[in-house]
Specification:
Cytochrome p450; 2 domains; five-stranded mixed beta sheet; 20 helices; 51% helix; heme; oxidoreductase; iron; oxidoreductase activity, acting on paired donors, with incorporation or reduction of molecular oxygen
Amino acid sequence: MWKIIGTAIAFLVAATIFSTYLAAKRRADKFKKDNPGLQVYTLLVPLFSPLRIFHLLPKWLPWLIYDMSDKQMAKGFTTEKGTDALAICDSDVSYFLLRDPALCHDIMVNRYKEIVKPVHTYVLIDIYGSNIVTTEGATWRRHRKIAGPVFGERNNALVHEASLRIANEMFAAWPTDQTALIDISEEMMQFALYVIASAGFGKDFAWTDKEGDIPAGHTLSFKTTMKTVIENLMNYVMFPDWSLSKLARTSRKEFGQYMDEMIEEAIADGDSLSPNILQALTKAAFAENESSKLTKEEIRANGFIMIVAGHETTANTLAYAFALLALHPDIQDTLYQHCIEVLGGRDPEYADFSKLTYSLAVMNETLRLYPQVIAIPKYSADQTVVIGKHVLPPKTEIHIEVTAIHKNPDIWGPDVDEFKPERFLSTDEARQNAVKIGWIPFSEGPRACVGKKFSQVEFVVVLTMVIMRYRVGVPEGVSREHLLESASLFTLKPKHNVKLVFSRR
């Protein structure tokens, strides 16, 4: 009996895979016909199948199980010299992958109304409602009009102040030994979380405070709910509510409740509160007329997306940066000397941000090598679009391949894999123009990340302060490959926690 059932199941699985492959092949053949000369790959298993998402496909399977890793992408783009585009078709969707920097720049800057964001793929992160990231058209413009200006100089100064205070508290908690092994991945996750809590929500946590106070009407502290919501983001996206832990369910509910309370407080008496970004967003939203202001629910949703966009991305980038500096002591020495020249040994002030050019160059070069978003998705929607010489049918998913552009030797030279912050300090006009279209970790154009300066200020402050106090090294027996091995789902991150040796200067 069980043998018959097993055979039947195996037959159904094989039949399903075969039928999906035939559908994918028909789609690929049509794409090839419309675009002669374009490399078109056919997928046996759909790109967003759970088998791929959870890495359940054996690595020995043949090329029909196309691997979307950075290495495979680079291989696909260099199969023929000058190849700047390729297509991948599965049974449901055609994907057009582009690394031509000029065409990508044009899409992001000039054609954003025609080649849109595939918001249907972003509904999964609408955990608290629609927001600036998950909307398009007139709705997005309403969000952008209000949320964009909130990330201005006044609030960026708040980010600097929070980063400075939290960094000093972090140092006070580090081992007092002359040399110590520190898990910088964990430290930067906590650092970035505390900066967002302070500058974003006006909630200041002591570095050693494990839980935080629980106010009336709540069963969990704000800190616990925010941390738990971040840690469970993938679970919220992938699994039904009933299958989640009680802590995850309660945290999602109470974090929304906390944000609602802060929004009501800002509406009632915002001028008497310590300034923060959620407060500024609320005041800006309610200053608009009735037809264009954001609702309380939309303010809450944008408060949540601020965490999603700004926490792990910054923490990961800092972990990569410290690993790269540990591997390149000469560059670390150059950074240290630059910081001393600018600051003379004191902590940075906000006015120093524009002077700390080498610190920012380290960030830029880190993001060139390890962009947090490895591809920027776009969509042809309900119309046929022409990109360069390629004709794309309606409902084509268009991926601007950030990693491939950042590793394009035509832009960056033959040493694209080397860590060289000086690339971003050149005064040569041709080099500056190349960087302008060839460096896109925050996207470009109207849909570029509104929190770019927030992240830059936070990064420059903590990097500068750490390097002025410590020399960073690689632990004995740890290889470069292990230190920088990466994994990607929503963001690119080190596969292993980055643990480095910190020696007091």
